[in-house]
Specification:
alpha/beta; 434 Repressor (Amino-terminal Domain); 2 domains; 6-stranded mixed sheet; 13 helices; DNA binding; XRE family transcriptional regulator
Length: 285
């Protein structure tokens, strides 16, 4: 499996070019005109929205900014890596143009709050099937494909250096009988097993915690190993997937996650809580 994220590389290249332009004291319009690169193209490159990067455009910008050979080669390398296709590209019908696994591929830490269901990265095939089938008529082959894609995401935990994952899960997600008692029992046992992994921290947010800063809904914050790569926030909605990158947005979700993590049970007490829920289902773990 490819560990590199094309999106991260595309964003890093945009940051490099924007930094070089600002160091040169040029506006976007001035740089585009002097390099003979369309303003819209340069703008999309700097904001990491450009999917096609021409080598001639990069060379023109490198000439304009008078960069050394090492920097020029690094720019071309980032551009080349941004074109690579990860395993998730085979599931574009599932993930869409903005694929969460693309960002997960290079994350060093994943922090997630989930209020309604067990987080996708922790779901069993049977539980995920029940989630995708819920409340609607959907073709069996579509369900199978979505479950297959979700299970593929879980492979990041089997890497030599897996990301550290911190999950705060609302009590309601543990008690909601998705797929029936047997599916739920297997899911909770799997969740408890995941909680014992050294790189995974699971905390339960009990009803007794009351109001908190994440009442607006589930979200995920992905942090990356390089300080050059700022975190990104993922918010899944019924209509679309949102990826938030602005510093004020990231700060707002950081504060929200710190709040729910602070009022949630400890990891040790959370495992005991999961055991209690299992017993309520009529199956001691």
């Amino acid at each position: 499996m490819d560990y590199r994220s094309p999106n991260v590389r595309r964003r890093r290249l945009g940051q490099v070019l924007r930094g070089l332009r600002e160091q040169a004291g040029m506006t976007l319009e001035e740089a585009a005109q002097k390099a003979n690169v369309p303003r819209s193209t340069l703008g999309r490159i700097e904001t990491a929205d450009a999917r096609r990067l021409r080598a001639s455009d990069l060379d023109a910008l490198a000439d304009l900014y008078k960069v050394d050979q090492k920097t020029r080669e690094a720019m071309h390398q980032l551009a080349q890596q941004s074109k690579e296709r990860g395993w998730w590209s085979k599931y574009r019908d599932v993930f869409g143009d903005q694929a969460l696994p693309d960002w997960e591929a290079e994350a060093s830490m994943i922090r997630t709050f989930e209020a309604l269901t067990i987080p996708g990265l922790f779901q069993t095939p049977e539980y995920a099937t029940a989630v995708f089938q819920a409340g609607r008529a959907i073709r069996e082959e579509d369900v199978v494909r979505r479950v297959e894609a979700r299970m593929k995401r879980r492979e990041i935990f089997n890497w030599i250096k897996p990301p550290h994952m911190v999950a705060v899960i609302d009590e309601g997600a543990l008690r909601r009988l998705v797929g029936g008692p047997e599916v739920m029992r297997e899911q909770l046992v799997h969740l408890k097993n995941m909680a014992h992994r050294h790189h995974i921290d699971i905390q339960v947010l009990p009803y007794a915690a009351g109001a908190h800063l994440a009442l607006a809904g589930p979200f995920t914050i992905l942090d990356f190993p390089s300080p050059k790569d700022q975190p990104i926030v993922y918010v899944g909605t019924a209509a679309d997937d949102l990826f938030l990158e602005q510093p004020d947005e990231i700060e707002r979700y950081n504060v929200a996650f710190s709040n729910v993590q602070g009022v949630a049970l400890s990891t040790a007490l959370s495992v005991e809580f999961i055991d209690d829920v299992l017993k309520s289902l009529g199956s001691a773990s």
